[in-house]
Model the fold of this input.
Amino acid sequence: MGPRMWQHCALLLSLSLLPVVSGGADSKGVTTSLTTKWASTPLLLEASEFLAEESQEMFWDFVEANQNIKGEHDDTDQAYYDLIVKRASALLSTVQLNMLKFSLSLRAYSATVHSFQQIASNEPPPSGCSAFFNVHGEKSCDTEKLTALMETAAERPKPYLFKSDHRFPGSNPDIPVVILYAEIGSSEFTMFHQLMLSKANKGLATYVLRHYLASPSSRRVYLSGYGVELAIKNQEYKAKDDTQVQGAEVNATLMGENDPVDEVQGFLFGKLKTLYPELKEQLKELRKHLVESTNEMAPLKVWQMQDLSFQTAARILAAPSSDALNVMRDLSQNFPTKARSITKTVVSSEIRKEMEENQKFFKGTLGLQPGDSALFINGLHIDLDTQDIFSVFEVLRSEARVMEGLRSLLIETPFIHDILKLNVQPSDSDYAVDIRNPAVNWINNLETDSRYGSWPYSVQELLRPTFPGVVRQIRKNFHNLVVILDPTHESSAELLNVAEMFYSNNIPLRIGLVFVVSDVDEIDGMEDAGVALLRAFNYITEELDAPAAFDTIISMFNRVPSGGKLSVGDVVKVLEKKFPYVEVGSILGPDSTYDDNRKEGRGYYMQTGVGPLPVVMYNGMPYQREQLDPEELETVTMNKILETTSFYQRAVYMGELATDQDVVDFIMTQPNVVPRINPRILSTARTYLDLSNTNNHFIDQYARFLFLDSREKSTAVANSMNYMTKKGMAPKDHHDDGYIRPVTFWVAGDFDQPSGRQLLYDAIRHMKTSNNVRLGLINNPSDSPSEENSRVARAIWAAMQTQTANNAKNYITKLAKEETAKALETGAEVTQFTVGGMDVALFKSAFEGPKFDFLLSHTVYCRDVLKLGKGQRAVISNGRIIGPLEDGEVFNQDDFLLLESIILKTSGERIKSKVQQFGVEEDRASDLVMKIDSLLSSQPKGEARIEHAFADDQYSAVKIRPTEGDVYFDMVAVVDPVTRDAQKLAPLLLVLKKLVNVNLRVFMNCQSKLSDLPLKSFYRYVLEPEVLFQTDGSFSPGPLAKFLDMPQTPLFTLNLNTPESWMVESVRTRYDLDNIYLEEVDSIVAAEYELEHLLLEGHCFDVSTGQPPRGLQFTLGTPSDPVIVDTIVMANLGYFQLKANPGAWILKLRKGRSDEIYKIYSHDGTDSPADADDLIVVLNNFKSRIIKVKVQKRPEKFSEELLSDGTQENDSGFWESLTRGFTGGVKTEESKQEKDDVINIFSVASGHLYERFLRIMMLSVLKNTKTPVKFWFLKNYLSPAFKEFIPYMAEQYGFQYELVQYKWPRWLHQQTEKQRIIWGYKILFLDVLFPLSVDKFLFVDADQIVRTDLKELRDFDLEGAPYGYTPFCESRREMDGFRFWKSGYWASHLAGRKYHISALYVVDLKKFRKIAAGDRLRGQYQGLSQDPNSLSNLDQDLPNNMIHQVPIKSLPQEWLWCETWCDDNSKKKAKTIDLCNNPQTKEPKLQAAVRIVAEWSDYDQEIKRLQNRVQERGAENHTTQKDKPDDTRIEL
Done:
C-alpha cells in the first residue's frame, strides 16, 4: 500500500467518524464593501491618467492610439480591460505595466478622472452636447463655431489652467486656449481631437484636454486599500437591542470556496479537494464539523498565553517559504479562533536565540522594541501608521522609475541596489562665503581687544565641561557675525541694535559691518545719508577706534523714528555734538579723504552674490530672510553659537585645531566655503534632463533627430558630444588619461554673440583649473543658421571633430576671446587663428563642409527639450538645467566652481567611486556618472535610506528570493505576528509579492511573557493586485472583506480602518453593525459603506503674531455655490479640516467677521499662484491633502479679536447658509432673538439599542419642554436606519436637527476601541463641531429620560465657568466600595472637590472658546492618553482631571438621578434619570429601563407605532420614491 493509499484510508476513516450533523445553518459570516459616492469612471480614462504621471508625451501617445475604441473589442468588460492593457503595454515596461494593473485594481485614478468631471459640471456643459469645447469662457459643441470663437478669444480673459491639466505640447503663450471636454475612446472624440490637433500643430491654439462623461455609469467605484476589523465586544453589561431585524439581504456570490490555503485544524481543504474530487460532499461536511469545533473560543489560562507570540512565529517559520505569508495572514487575521491550537506549538531554541540577537540590533539601529514592526522598501522606511496604500504605490512607482532608468543604462542588477543606496539628495548644507576681506569693518577682535583680556586663550577650554546652554567665553574669534547693509534702508537700525546688544553684553561674537553705498564719485556725504554715514564711521575709526565709531553710528540711528530712514541731518547732528571743534563739511563734503572701503563694500557684496540687502552672515553663512526679524536674529545667533561649539570641540579633540592656529583661517578652509553664492544654483527647485536611455542616434542626421522623443533626443545629444578637459580633450577615438571626470558641464548659448562667448570663456577658464570637469557645448543660435551667422559655432565644431585634444582646446579658447570675434566680423578668416600643431587642411575641409545638421539639431533641442528661447544661454551640469539665464545675468568662473563643488559634495564623488567598480572605459564611465547623477537627483527628495546589514535570518525570518536577472525590489519587514500591524502587513506583502519582483525578508520580532490575548479581533485587509472578472467576462463585484466561518457565540462590533483623509459612513444595512450576533443571523451580514468625503486639512497662522487665529472660519465651495462646507481653526497647530470630494474648490475666509478682520497673506500646497486672492484647491487623488495658509489682520482691525465674550449684534448674518452636513431641518438661521430661544441638545449614540434609547430621550425632552428644540447628533457612528427615520420623527414632533461630524485629527493620539473613540467625540472637539452662532448647548446622554423643561438648565447661571456638570450622587451607601474617586489619585487630585458625571452637561460655547478650553483639553489628553492605564472613562476623567485649568460649575444634584449611586428617596425630585451601569448587579440596560422608569415603555411603544406607520408608507411608496420629507439617496 503506497503512502497515497494510506492517506486515502486515513481520510475516509476520519470522514466516517463524523458525527451525524443535521442539515443546520451553513457557514455564517460578515462581508464589507466600500464604494464611492460618485459614478464609476471608465478604466481607459484612469489608465490615461496613470500614463500622464509618467510623462505628458506618453499621455498624448495613449490618447492618439485610443481615440475611438468602440469597435475594437467585443463588449465584455474583460475584453475592454485587455485592450487597455495591450495598448498601454506598447508604452510601458513590464514593471510599469504591473503598476498600471494595480492602479486600476485600486481605482487610484478614479478620483482624478472624477475631479475633471466636477470641473466640467461647474462650467456647466451646454445642453445636448456629449463633448464640448470652451474658448476663453464661450462654450459650444458645434465645430463650425470654433474658428470664430478663437478669433474673438483675445477680448476675453484666459481660462485658469490647473497643474493637473493636460496641455498639448507647444510653446507659444500668446495664442488662445481651447479646452476640450470629452471622453477619450468614445465615437465623438476622434472628430474633436483631430480638429484640436490641426489647430495646435499650426500654432493657432493651446489645446487642453479634460475628461468629461456625458452619461456617467450607474455603477459605483468599489474601493480597496482599507482594513476591516471584527472586534469581540466585552459583554459584561448587555447592550443588545431585542427588536427583530426586518428583512435580511445577502449577496450570495460572495461565498467562494476557492481559497487555496483553506486550512482548518491542519487539514488543507484546498489541496484535498483537488486530490480527491470524488469526496467533495464528505469533505464539505468534515470541514464544517472542524470549523464548528475550533470556533468554540474557550478562554485560555494565563500560563497558556505567555508564549503565544513566539509560538505563532514558529508556526509561520515552519511553513515552506512560498506559503509562509499565507500562514501569517491566516493566523494573525483569525487569531482568536487559532490561539488554542497555537498554544500546542513547540518553539526551538535556535529561533529564540537568533531573535534575541536580532532584537538587540533592531533596538540599537532602528529604535524598535520587541513587538514593534517596520517595513523598508529599498531601504526607505514605510510608516505603517501614517502611510496608506496610495503612498506606498507612489514609493513603488518612483523606485521603479529609478531602477528601470539604471537598467536602461545597462547597469547590472546587483549594482542597481548599491547605486540606489547612495544618498545624493541635494543636502541643505549651508554654504558660506569668505569673510577674510578688507571690505569688512571689524568692530572688535576677541583675540586682541583689552576688554576680553581676562578670558582664557587656549582652545582646550572647549573640552572643559559646563552646564548645557552656557556660551563659553574664550579669547578666540570662533564666532563671527558680518552685517552687510545699506544705511538708508529702514531695517538697518533694528539690525545694528541687535549687533550692539551682542557687543555690549560681552557675547563672544566678533562683529563686522559692510556698508553698501553709492559708488558714484560725484555723490558726496552732504547729499547722500549712506555716504555720510560711511565717511563719519571712517573718520571716527581713524581718530579714536572702531568701537567708538560703532557707538556713534548707533546713536545716529537712534534719532531715526521707527519705520523711517536715516537722513544726512541725523549724521550731521551727532557729529557736531561729539566733535564740536571739527568742520563737518571736511568729513562729509566733496573733499573728504574718508572714502576707505566705499567701492570695496559694494564690490564685496556684488561678488559674493548673497542676495537682496540687508544680509547677516554667521561665519560666512547667510541667514534666511525670515530669521532677520530682531527677536529671531538673537535666538538664531545664540543657537548657532551653541551648535558650532560642538563642531569646534570635535575639531580640537581630533587634533585638527590647535591654540596657535588662526581660527578664522580654519573656518574658511571648510568644504562649505565657496567664493560666491548664487541663489540660482543653490535653489532647491531643480529641473533635470532625463538621460536614462541608451540608443544609437546622433545629431548629424537632423531628419531622424527631429522625430525622436525628448528622452531619445537627450541621449543623441550626449552620444554626439565632444568634451574638453584639463589635460587636453578626449575625443572618442583615443584616450589621453584613464580618469573618470564626475562633473560634466554642457554650456548652451549662441557662440556667435558676445554673451554666449563670455559664458564659454568663463567655463573654459574654470575647466582649466579642475581635473574633475569635462566641458561640452550646445549651440543655440539667435537666428536661423546661415554661413554668416554661425562661423564661430562651425569653427568650434570643426576643431572638435578633427583636431587633437590640446590643440582644439587652445584654438577654441582663442575663438572665445572678444578680439578674435571682432576680427572675424571685419572679414578675417577662421584659419588665421589656428594654433601651432593643428592640421589646418583637415580643419578647413570640415569647416567648409555643406552640412549644418549639428546646428539644426542643437537648435531644435534647445527649443523643445531645454525650453530656451532663441539665443538664450543655459548651463547643464550633470543633467541639471540651470537657466534660461536672463540677458545680462552674471554667471562666471566662480559660479562654475560653486556648481562643481556642490556636485562633488552631494553626488559626483560617490557615484564615481561606484562606477569605477564597473570597469568600463573612462568616456563611458564619465557619461554614466553624469546620467546616474541626473537620474538620482531628479527624484523627489525623500527620507534617507536605511543601510541595513541585518542580523541573522537563518531561523527567525521568512525569506523570499527574487527571480534571477530581473530588477527586483529589496523589502525588509520586521513584525510581531500577533499584532494589528501583522494583520495589515501580511496581506500587503502578499500583494506586493504578486505585483513586483521582490527580495523579501520578514524578521520575527516577538514579545515574551504575554499576560492577555494579544489580538481580540478578526481582521481583513481589502487589496487585490489586479482587476478580477467573473466567468462571463464581466467585472467581479468589487473587492470585499469577507469574514466566513466566524464563531457564532461572541458579540462582534465592526470597524473600518481607512486612510487618514477618508470619511466613510455606513449605508444600506438592516443589521446593527455595533452588535453583530451571528447566532441570530440567517447567513450573511452584508455591511455596505460609502466614501462620503475626502478631507482637505490645513494649518493656519497669523503672520504678524505667528499664532493660530482661533475662531477664524474658512469656507469651501465652487464659483456658483461659494459656501458648501465651512470650518473653524483650532489653536492646536492652527489645524482645520474641510469635507470635500474630488474636483476644484475655492477656499475663502468666511463672509462676516472672519473676512472683515483678516485677509489671506500667503499659502502653500494649493493649486493657485501665490498672489491669487481666491485659493483654488484641486482634490484629484485619494492621498491626504494638507495645505498651509497664512493670514494677516487688516490694518484698520488690528486691535479687534475674532472671539469675544460680549454679545455681537446679529451674529447669525454670516452663518446664513448652515449647510454643515444637513439632512433635514430648517436651513436658514433665525434672527438673534429667536435664535436665543432654541434649545440646542447634543447627543451621541452607536448601535441599535442606544439609538432606541436616543429616540426615547428625544421624546421625553419634547414632551416636557415648551421651547423649540434643535438636536445635534454626531453623524460618524449613526446607523443608516436611524438616519432614514429621523426626518419622519422631526416632521411628526416638530423639532429641528442637524448631523455634525469631525474626523479625529491625525496628530491627536488615536484611540483604537470604538467606545473610547465615541467618548473622545463627547469632549474633545466641542469648539469646532458647532457653528459659531451656537452660544450654548446641553449634552444629554442617549440613555437618559428627561422629566422637566430643559430651558431651566439652559438658562442656569454658570458663574463664569465654561461648563456645568452634575456631581456623582453619594446617597446610596451600599455602593461606597465602588466609588473610586474617594481614594487614591482622585482623592488627592480633587482635594475635596466633587467628581462629576459626564451623562449630562451644559456648555457655554462663547466662554469655552474664549478661554481656549478645547485646546487645553486636547493638550492634556495628548499628554495623558499615551499611557494606556490613564483616562479609563475618557469623557469623564478628562474634564475632572482638568478641573484646576478649566473650572466646572457643579449643577444641583436633582438634575441627574441614577439608581446605582443615588438613594430611592431622592428619585421624587429627579429632573432627569440616567440608566447608569450597575457594577454590583450588572443588570442589562433594557431590563433596568422598564423597571426604573415608569413612562419608558409608553414612550417606547409610541415610537414603535410611528416606525410601523413609516414602514407601511415606505412599502406602499416603494416603487414611486416619493412622500419623504428628506433628500433621501436615490440610487442611479
The longest strand covers residues 1084-1102. DSSP finds 50 helices and 50 strands in the chain. The two ends are 64 Å apart (CA to CA). Residues 630-653 form the longest helix (24 residues).
